[in-house]
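Reviewers of the previous submission asked for a worked example of the structure-prediction workflow described in the proposal, so we include one complete record here. The input consisted solely of the amino acid sequence. No template or homolog information was supplied to the procedure at any stage.
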Amino acid sequence: MTATVLAKLMAMFFTVGLGWLAARQRWLGKPEEGDPARVLGNLVFYLFVPALLFRTTARLDLAHMPWATLVAFFVPLVGVLLLVYLSQRRAAARHGAAAPATRAITASFGNSLQVGVPFAAAVFGEAGLAIHIALVSLHALVLLTLLTALVELDLARAARLGNAGGADNAGRLRGLARTLAQTARNTVIHPVVLPVLGGMAWNLTGLGLHPIVDESLLTLGAAVVPMCLVLIGVTLAAYGVRGLWRGALGLSAVKLLLVPAVVLVVAHWGFGLSGLPLGVVVMMAALPTGSNALIFSQRYETLQAETTATIVISTAAFALTASFWLAVLSILP
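From that input alone, the workflow returned the following structure tokens.
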């Protein structure tokens, strides 16, 4: 673990601590005046994240993307995501319909910016950082879009079952059609998916972004990282982590150990990846849980405390697990 990465980790914990202090001192308002974690989460989800996603998608250089490396990374990652999602479907009855997707994003979405960028630059140099940035450019687009579709389908299905009652077969078919239509609408008209589709459409026009628009989106997007770190601290103060260690430790183990192991096996022996590209994709998979998982849980009001605990635990443990995966990569041909 390099000094640069350790300094980044310490800075992250310091910023999270400031968010916790702000909530404890009620600088963001008293509890009876509203939930500050919810307000901050909505601000990030509806304003800052869409700006970041639209700008990222609109500026993607599709012609020069390392597509083979991207496929070798996202195929196993999405596979683990779906495995966690399906295994957590039974938890929906206890924690709500959004619980499977929330735990799936917590176990698969890595902190590719605050931790990943300095780590890739320090360990792999400029060439490795270029590959990492290519992965980052599609990371949120792929995972958030897929999980949004899954959670909206679950919510629509839960609403349909709750209203089904003693409906006959024709009524059930009509209910299913409404479920699919509602899922499609909620998936597209969504603060994550809509900016992605809009940015991709703008990208295909080849017009580029006007400097004023680009600078505005850049300014809004730059607020995502500090706002998310503060939000983690605010959520810690609001919900605490007592009684959540077991679930958080399990999700952290999946994120730090299972995900990179699956990516390593599939990318190396399945897609033939080796050398620098293999090292970058494995360490990208080995990153701790990113703050977008908390934004997702805030959006759907599910497992906020467990998600926050997982972010904190996995970030602290990354110093050890990163060294382990670098050692594993060093013995591969």
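The two ends are 22 Å apart (CA to CA). We consider this example representative of the routine output the project will generate in years two and three.
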